[in-house]
Design brief:
Largest sheet: 7 strands, mixed
Radius of gyration: 27 Å
Mean pLDDT: 88
Helix content: 10-25%
Distance between the termini: 90 Å
Number of helices: 6
Strand order of the largest sheet: 11-10-12-13-19-18-15
Number of domains: 3
Strand content: 25-35%
Shape: elongated
Structural class: alpha/beta
Number of strands: 19
Length: 351
């Protein structure tokens, strides 16, 4: 009987050791090592060679070889390896040049960047990480000209920044020297107020835009400056919106889950502007202010969307779409999604 118990204890002991050994080996192989991309952006243009920085952090010195592979499904596009040394005080930053494949209009592809770090002179499993990227075509409007023509875009752009982008992207539009001309247009249109305009320089502009929205037009103000009186507040002129939606930059994910949240440029130098409300006598006034670079939890809202009766819309967006146009796909495709959002009520009516 005693012999059987001894055999049973030995059996359990070997089983416990078999479980613990891999864990001990793993602890030796990877003491809190992490791999990841330096920048939060995961969207890129297809057809370009793009530099990505991989950051390796370690609780103690990690000397080893980083292998990487760019793959779409089972197909490997490119692979390589680099020697890295990371310490607690100095993380390793490894620059990889990715030869992203071209992407057809209207298509988004999602390759994986597979990373693996094996430490020199250590046994056990490597440290692995997988980053899912999203590749977009250069021009979001390439296959949408017919739909854009139906939107009947008009542009008021004193700074000239937005007009250049529309031209380069082959977007059909009519330039207007004053938004007042749309008041006589009996068919709904979409008016884009170009980026960088200050309401302080055009004190009557918001009143005009409210009238246009009340007539059924859709109005988009891109990253304005200055101050304006909120429609619907006591003492304000013109129609009142049926509802107003205030949103943070998370609205981007509602419009398209594949897009990045700001900041979109690597330096974080192009910032969002936000509408901060203040009571001035009987009025509610919006002060459009630029947030501090790198600020977290900044006050105010970069998205003020006013819905008027029928198809009328008035959207003030402080997201730096025009200023970040060259930084990646997100500003371009966000612009498309916003235009689609503004056109939606008319499409539902069959206009």
């Amino acid at each position: 009987m005693r012999g059987k118990q001894t055999k049973s204890y030995l059996s359990h002991g070997w089983g416990l050791l078999a479980i613990l050994l891999p864990l001990l080996t793993w602890a030796e192989a990877a003491p809190d090592i992490t791999l990841g991309l330096e920048n939060s952006s995961r969207t890129f243009f297809g057809g370009r060679h793009t530099a990505l920085n991989v950051v390796v952090t370690a609780e103690e010195e990690a000397d080893g070889v980083l292998t990487w592979e760019l793959a779409i499904g089972q197909r490997t596009i490119r692979r390589g390896e680099k020697r890295v040394v990371a310490t607690r005080a100095t993380p390793a930053v490894v620059e990889l040049t990715m030869p992203f494949p071209p992407v057809k209009p209207g298509v988004v592809i999602s390759p994986e960047l597979r990373l693996s770090l094996r430490r020199e002179g250590r046994t056990g499993p490597a440290v692995d990480s997988v980053e899912t990227l999203r590749l977009f075509p250069e021009n979001p409007f390439a296959d949408r000209r017919e739909g854009l023509e139906k939107n009947r875009l008009a542009l008021f752009d004193p700074t000239g920044k937005t007009e250049q982008i529309l031209r380069d992207s082959d977007v059909p539009y009519e330039y207007v020297r004053t938004p007042l001309v749309l008041e006589s247009d009996d068919k709904p249109r979409t008016l884009i107020v170009g980026s960088g305009l200050s309401f302080d320089d055009y004190p009557e502009l918001m009143t005009t835009l409210v009238r246009l929205a009340a007539l059924g037009h859709a109005v988009l103000c891109l990253r304005p400056a200055g101050r304006f009186t909120m429609p619907g507040s006591d003492g304000s002129e013109g129609a009142s919106p049926q509802d107003v939606r205030l949103a943070q930059s998370g609205i981007i994910s509602e419009l398209d889950k594949q897009l990045d949240l700001p900041p979109w440029d690597r330096q974080g130098s192009v910032v969002t502007t936000r509408c901060r409300f203040a009571a001035e006598r009987a009025l509610v006034v919006c002060h459009v202010e630029a947030e501090a670079a790198g600020a977290a939890g900044a006050a105010g809202w970069p998205w003020v969307n006013m819905r008027f009766q029928g198809t009328g819309r008035l959207l003030v967006s402080g997201l730096p779409i025009v200023e970040s146009w060259e930084s990646g796909p997100t500003p371009r495709f966000l612009f498309l999604r916003i235009l689609e959002l503004l056109a939606e009520p008319r499409q539902n009516k069959g206009d």
